[in-house]
Design goal:
Radius of gyration: 17 Å
Helix content: 25-40%
Structural class: alpha/beta
CATH architecture of the largest domain: Alpha-Beta Barrel
CATH superfamily of the largest domain: Aldolase class I
Number of strands: 5
CATH topology of the largest domain: TIM Barrel
Strand content: 5-15%
Largest sheet: 5 strands, parallel
Length: 155
C-alpha cells in the first residue's frame, strides 16, 4: 500500500510512528500504526511489517529508495538559495516511485512549496485529499475538468 493511501484512508488522524529498530516497528504495527518513519535503514524491516515506511533522514531520494522506503521527507528549508533544488528533488523522488512528504516550517516555506511543486495536479491526488478530509483545494488556472471528476459544476 502506498504511504499516501495508508494515511488518507479511514477515520481520524493516522499515526505514523517514529521507530529506531525492527522491534519497535513490529510493536507499532501490532498496536495499529498506519505507517512507520525511520532515519536509518533497518535491514529486515520489510520482512517484519507490511506498513508503509517514511524515510526521514537527510539526503537524497535515492537513499530512501535503496533503504526500501515508500515515501521520503523533503525539507523546503534544505533548498537554501538553490531555486531549482526543491523541484529537482521532488521530481527524482516521484521518478523513483516514492511519495513525497514536504516539510515546511514557516509561511514562507509553505508559499515556496506550493509555488514550486504544484501539489494538486491529478484527479487521484484530489481523491486522496478528499479521503483525508480536505474540503477544498485551490489550483492554478488550467484544464480543471480533469480534476473535477464525474461532472463539472454548472457555471
Amino acid at each position: 500500500m502506498r504511504f499516501s493511501q495508508a494515511i488518507s484512508e479511514g477515520d481520524g488522524i493516522s499515526l505514523i510512528v517514529d521507530v529506531a529498530d525492527v522491534d519497535a516497528a513490529r510493536a507499532a504495527a501490532s498496536q495499529g500504526a498506519e505507517a512507520v518513519s525511520v532515519e536509518v535503514a533497518l535491514g529486515d524491516l520489510r520482512e517484519v511489517i507490511d506498513l508503509p515506511v517514511l524515510w526521514r533522514a537527510s539526503g537524497l531520494p535515492s537513499e530512501a529508495a535503496v533503504a526500501g522506503a515508500d515515501a521520503w521527507v523533503i525539507s523546503v528549508g534544505a533548498a537554501g538559495d538553490d531555486g531549482t533544488w526543491l523541484v529537482r528533488q521532488h521530481d527524482e523522488g516521484l521518478a523513483l516511485g516514492l511519495d513525497c512528504v514536504v516539510e515546511v516550517r514557516s509561511e514562507e516555506e509553505l508559499e515556496l512549496a506550493l509555488e514550486q511543486l504544484d501539489p494538486v495536479s491529478s484527479r487521484a491526488q484530489v481523491d486522496e485529499l478528499e479521503r483525508a478530509g480536505v474540503d477544498a483545494v485551490i489550483v492554478g488556472a488550467r484544464n480543471v475538468a480533469g480534476l473535477v471528476g464525474d461532472a463539472a459544476p454548472p457555471v
